[in-house]
Every structure is written in structure tokens, then in C-alpha cells.
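Example 3.2
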Amino acid sequence: MFFAVQRLLTDADLAYFYTDLLLNSPTTVKRAMDRQGIVKSTAYKYANELAELGVAEELDEYEDGAALWTAEPAVGTWETEAAELVVSPVVIAVYGASTVDDDLEYFLERYGEATLLHAIVETDAYLQGEQTRRGLATALDVPSAAGIAVSQAIEAIIGRVSPVDPAFPDRSGDVHVRAIDDAPYTVDA
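Structure, written as C-alpha cells:
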């Protein structure tokens, strides 16, 4: 699983596709294409790569003539200079969302992956009432506006993805439904 997690943290587009597939499993590649606005060749390339990594599988079940796909939660560890971080679907989703969320993209470009991953930990502390948004920015050593913006983006993703993440506490009840609705990932009804 380590290689899969490492690969997902080096390709934000693949991480975004993986998270969409995980949240909507089982689903067809066509429906994933429609949700993400990507072309067929790219979608199948990603689906097949996820299958090779062992985190997705094409099922022997069909919907409207198309094979259903399912994804499994990928969990591994990533070591930084400061600490060892458990990398799970929430972390992968935040990284993947940097391809479609301007606040996450800016934060990642400006402050780097390690600070973005630290922001996930600090946002979780905020959701538990152990941290304020300004305190979060101070802990990250970033301007208040950047800390507040990134924590709001991460909060929405935590609310959407934590229910399917076995390594992250389900915080969906701690996040307002409007924030979850604004998350960069959608779940088919």
C-alpha cells in the first residue's frame, strides 16, 4: 500500500480521480468522467493505474452497459522532518483537491506539501475545539488569511471524506452541511 499512497501524493489529478471513485463506489468510469469533466482516455488511464496500484477494481457488474468500478481506502505513512503522518483518504483528497480549489492550490504552491499536510492536522484540532483558525495560522507560520482560507477548504473535505476513511475520525457531524456541500467532491445520490 505504501507505493500506492506515495504515487497518489505525487499526482494530484490521480488523487482527485481516486477520491471521486472512492466516494462514489461502485460507479462507472463514464460517471466519474462526467463528475470531473475529464476525457475518456484520461479517465480510463487513471482507473487502470489505480487498479495496478491495488486501490481500485473493475467489477463483473454493469450499469447501463458499463462496468462498475470500486475503490478501497488507501492508508500508509509519510515521514517528514517534524513527524510521521498517517496518509489516508482525507489527506489524499486534500492533495487531489488542489487541482480544482484555488485556495488549496495557492497554499500548496506557496507553502509546500509539508505545511499543507500540517494544515490538515491543525484543521482537525480546530474541528475538535482545540484550536482557533487564527491559532491554526500561527501554528503553520502563515498569514492569518492564508490559514483561515486553507482551513475552510480542508474542513469541507474532511466533512465529505472522513466517513469513508478508516484512519481518520468521522468528523462529518462537526462540519456544517453547507461546507460539505461546497466541498470539491460530489457524491451521486
